[in-house]
Design brief:
Layout: H1 10-15, E1 22-25, H2 33-37, E2 49-53, H3 61-64, E3 72-76, H4 81-86, E4 92-94, H5 102-109, E5 114-119, E6 127-129, H6 137-143, E7 146-151, E8 159-160, E9 163-165, E10 171-174, H7 189-199, E11 207-210, H8 214-221, E12 230-232, E13 235-236, H9 238-245, E14 261-263, E15 265-266, H10 270-276, E16 282-284, H11 287-290, H12 293-296, E17 302-307, E18 310-312, E19 317-318, E20 321-322, E21 325-326, H13 333-342, E22 347-351, E23 355-359, E24 366-370, E25 372-373, E26 391-394, E27 397-400, H14 406-415, H15 422-431
Parallel strand pairs: 1-2, 1-5, 2-3, 3-4, 5-7, 7-10, 8-16, 11-12, 11-17, 12-14, 13-15, 14-16, 17-22, 18-25, 22-26
Antiparallel strand pairs: 6-9, 18-19, 20-21, 23-24, 26-27
Helix pairs in contact: 7-8, 14-15
Amino acid sequence: MSFECKVISVEEALKHIKSNDIIITGLGASEAKEILSNLHRIADHVENVTVTTCLPMLDAAYFNNPQYKDTFRMDGWFYTSSMRKAHKHGNISFIPNHLHLAATKRLAYVKPNIYIGNATPPDKHGFVSLSLSNVYEKRMIEAADVVILEINPKLPRTFGDVELHVKHIDYMVEVDYDVPELPDAEPNEKDLKIGAYIAEYINDGDCIQLGIGSIPNAVAASLVDKKDLGVHTEMLTTGMMKLVEAGVITGSRKNFNRGKIVAAFALGSKELYNFMDNNPSVMIMDGHWTNDPYIIGQNDNQVSINTTIEIDLTGQCASESLGSIQFSGTGGQADTAIGAQRSKNGRSFIALYSTAMVKDTEMGGKVEISKIVPQLKQGAAVSLSRNDVDCVVTEYGVAHLRGTSMRERVNKLIAISHPTYREQLYNEAIKIGLITN
């Protein structure tokens, strides 16, 4: 099927954007790079344009340059470093969400005028692949008045729930940029200790979900001696790809989608993208389904592994904000942690370093603080409630919190805190009434 009649230039695509439009773009490497890179060029012709993003890879002028703050707004489901830096301009705002409900709840509030994203060139049947993400993309495409896709031959053609016929696309912009990559965070000594602790609790045949960062990468590296692991995950990573190539991940014991790697999106290295290209064992599925705790729980032996910024002595996890300052996002942390615990013999792990170095606002320089605290910082967002926490891991060990009382939690969490802070934490727990002496 010919699609040339739908091909337009970036300049023509920009002309379809009007004042007061609500624009949705794809997650991570699925965003419309060329259109968004040039969006600021129409600042003199439009006003009050909102772009809704998630984990954007692009540091674009429309949101990072204060010159355009009165013209363009960005609403984001997940903050990145560029968004954190630009937040001070006043035109960026976070959308609280659980990932599996991000699309449906947003659509209950507002209808998008335009969806912009990227896709592979159409195949001989007229289908493009949305390639690296369907966290919310197809639902937004179906809801939008106008759909504009950047057609990039460098994207991997993937399968699952990412196929879209050209008849559902209004316009196409032909591009040829390299797919954005996420470099592997090299694990340090603490990461490797934490990874080794978690690996002890992962058995042959388990189905895993890994989050983002150096600790999940260390966990992946610690699993090289396991057999027949499965994958049902929010994010497909380079570390998982390496486990497939090592023969560790086969998916042969999964309850459903046996032999398949199931994810809502992928972000990683060029090697990961090459692995995914035309690979029928990889399924990129609707995030509303993939991250539904009920669906996750249908796989036996599901293991969820995520990280947090700070945890209090009751088990509340602040994984996305520093006090009231938004740092990242909830993403699928609650989805996957709760889903894993619904699973027969499932387990959920929250990992963090016992300490962190932070700026000393009074003396200058940096000071060490405990990341296990009596109470979370004022204004901190609770990403995973104390009702849903299971196992917490630091470089000092594993605290099993499922079903425990307050006193038991306090003792277990103090036991995996840095030794320097244990007495202080115990005394503070008494002071604020968590336990009695």
